[in-house]
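User: If only I could read backbone structure tokens as easily as an amino acid sequence. Those tokens are not coordinates but codes from a learned vocabulary of shapes. Could you go through the record with me and say what the backbone is doing? Here is the record:
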Amino acid sequence: MRSHKITIALGLLALTIFAISMVGCGGSDNNPTSTAGSLTDPAFMAVQDQLDNIVDSTLTDIVNGFQNLTNVSGDGNVNPVFYGPVQPDSDVVSATYADGWHVVLVSRVRATFNTMLRDSVQFYANNGVSQLPASADSLYYRHQWRFTFGDTSVTHLGMSSAANLTIGGLQGNVATIDGSHEADINTKQVTADSTVWRTFSISADVTNLQVSKTFVGWAQGCPSSGTISGTIDMSYQKDDGTPAATSWTFTATFSDGTMSATVAKGTTTWHYTTDVCTTVN
């Protein structure tokens, strides 16, 4: 009987210690609850614009990547006109093939602006690099683009971006896209009563985007699933004020062309859903 009473006492003591420890843990909680951000918050709206832009340009890059499957002629050469807006007055227009890469370079230098486009593509077939895309089961696509404005005293925008994508599954009916996309954007808005600068540094990871083949081949870049996630660092300055820097994270999940995005800054979180494209079967 005595041993039974001791067992009960020890059990009550253990429960008491456990209860006290739980109270203590509750009092030192280092994981505050996230609060919902306003979708009309000006800072969020500026970040949302850049998130939508990086998603839109990534989907465009996927389409451009697919188009490389038909832009190479039978002799293994490429026509630069397929790789971007080749203007008649472009200063440099070149297309080369070396070390397994087709490389197209187009640039223009003017007093009011400069542009540069550099596309590189490599086809992979039968466990090796192929100059021709006919039997390719995957391709590697690198897209670089830069625009700078000449007169920085007025309202303007400048940007540079680099996408690095791997597109696999080309011998099947569903392609899988992985890779990265980075961009740097600087803007200046001059009005009658103020001048505002914003800069954005965006780093995005493209993970397991699934794109289906259509009845006309690889003609779409609209994902049925997958994610694009990363960070956006923003700096804001008005007139002679001190620049204010903020860091944001985002995850965009796709389902048949619909994007569900979650954006966070500190303990504040924003959610929104939008249709970015239409899938074609």
Summary: Residues 42-71 form the longest helix (30 residues).
